Structure formats: structure tokens, C-alpha cells
Amino acid sequence: MSDSGNRTSHIRLTSHPGTGAPVRFPVTWGKADPRERGPVIGSVTRPGDRNTIGSHGGSYSLYRALAVSSGALNPMQRPDLTNTSPVVQFGPYPQWGEPGKIVSLDPFGHMVAEVYRDLIAEGVDIRPTIAITKARLTVVELQQAIRDKRLKVDGDIVREQGDISVIKAAVDPVWHLPGIAARFDVSEDKLRRTLFEQTGGMYPELVTRPDLEVFLPPIGGQTLYIFGDPAAITDPKRRLTCRVHDECNGSDVFGSDICTCRPYLVHGIEECVKEAQAGGAGLIVYNRKEGRALGEVTKFLVYTPASGRRAATPPPNTSSAPNASPACRMPASSS
Ligand SMILES: [Zn+2]
């Protein structure tokens, strides 16, 4: 198969690789050594090298398609990974090689530029699925907490101006389909077929390529905010304060009064900062799945004012995710 380019006149069916030859870079999920595990290759620039279903960027792959279709972006464009190394070294840890332990992300996703340097130099299009950088947070409630003496300025974690030092990591989803199926206690066949059907047949390889076990789903990932020394997270002798928070754009960003997500989030950050100042670490895991994975349209439908008051009970048939609450936690006063 030609790797020469993505010609618009030529449709390349991903379900029919052509030669039937085994993939050039097999993935053996659950190996402790990333070289043994193999790189996750979801690039569309060299289709012959692919060993995954889907493509990089999660839901943003569709925006990329729009940019390519309009001629604004060269489909063969590759990211320049120069100076993109993580600002902090994470791992590897023994758990990364335990089969079944990690099934929805690539634990080596931040290390690919280093681990697969030779393959990338050869022209294999391997992309990071995790990026780690540093930032400072300015949160008005926490500046008030400083004025109220609940938080103290230490010049390191909380700085003079009231901003807070943080390490943040963006994590794209990388699904190991057999592992995901096991988590949901369904057969892999059924999982693949349902994913295929419920996306309107978006990824034929789900049902035609059982040899490809890794899927890059077009969904949001996670953002991690780490406070204090990141080494404390993996040190059992040091304390960790952690909040797992589902994205709630309405409250988290806009301060909408329909739920109490932002106060919970801000309180979580405050506790994380205190733990970091006490020698431990704080961790906010921010899941990019609005309304417990239902999306904002469903969420707003649930909360549409009816008869002069908000619907505290969601209408039936709105819960599409297993064990998911219909939307955010409601404040006590409105339930
Ligand atoms: Zn909310």
C-alpha cells in the first residue's frame, strides 16, 4: 500500500488492509517495558504503520478533518516534538506492566519521543498521548482563602501574588479493548460490535480487525492537576489528597447556580494545596466528560425549568452511561 499521501480521489478502506500481512509494530498490552509493549500508532500519515483503531486527538480528530478538508491543514503534517518532554519524570512503575491494571490510557504516552526516538527518526509517526507541563492557578476563591487565613503564602506552592504552582498533565484516552470489555464484564465481541453500531459504523475495524486491540476513541480525556512534590504521589509514606471531578462547564467555568460543582472543585483544590504544604501532594483528576458522560444538551434538558421550578428528578431514558448519575450533584436546597 502506498504511503505517499492522502489523495482525496483515493478512498483507503481501513477494514481491508490489503495484503493481510501482520502489523509491522504489534502492541502487546500490559508489558512493563515500552519497547516490548510496542508504540501505539494511530497516525494517518503512514497507514501501513498503523496498529490501532481510530486516530489521535480524541474528538479533535474531527476538527482536524474539517481543517484538512477545507485545505487549511496539510494532512501529512506531523507535530514537531522538539522541546516537548515532560517537565517532570513520571515512572515507569511496576503497575504499568500489570495486565488488566491500566486499560483506558497509555501509561507510556508521555515518554514516546524518548522511548521510540529511533523509530520516529526513521519516519514512523508516533505521537504522545500524554503531555505534562507547569502552570500557575489564579482562583478568586483561593485568593479570598488567603485573605481569610485558611491558606498561607509559602512562596513556593502558594506565591506572594496568591497564585498557586501546579504541574498539569493532559491525558488522551487509549483503550485496550479486551481490558475495557473485562472491566464492563461483557465479551470483547459484544463491546466491539456495540461501539461500531452506536457510532453509526464510524470505525469498521472494530468489527473487522480483531487483531487490533487498541482503540483511540473520539472522546475527551482527563486533565490532572498536581500540587506539591509529585514524588509524594507514589510514596506510601507521604499523604495524598485527591479529588476526582467530572467536568461541569456550567458551574466550573461560568459559576451557574444549577449545581454545586465549582464549590466542590475549589474546596478540593484548597485541600490539595494544604496537603502539599504539609509535605504530601494534592491531585485533581478532572474527567473531560460533561454531565457524567451525557453531554450538556441532555444535562440542560434535565434541568429545564418546569412549572416554575427546576426538575430535581431526571426524566427517564436519559442515562446512557453505566452507573452514571443523570447530571451533576444537585444542591441540597433544590432537591
Ligand atoms: Zn455541575
From TrEMBL:
Protein known as: GTP cyclohydrolase II
Domain GTP cyclohydrolase II: 234-303
Organism, as annotated: Methylobrevis pamukkalensis
Region feature Disordered, mapped onto this chain: 1-55, 308-335
InterPro entries, alphabetized: GTP_CH_N, GTP_cyclohydro_II, RibA-like_sf
Ranges of Polar residues composition bias in the record: 1-12
Chain ranges of the GTP cyclohydrolase N-terminal domain: 9-198
Biological-process GO terms, alphabetical: riboflavin biosynthetic process
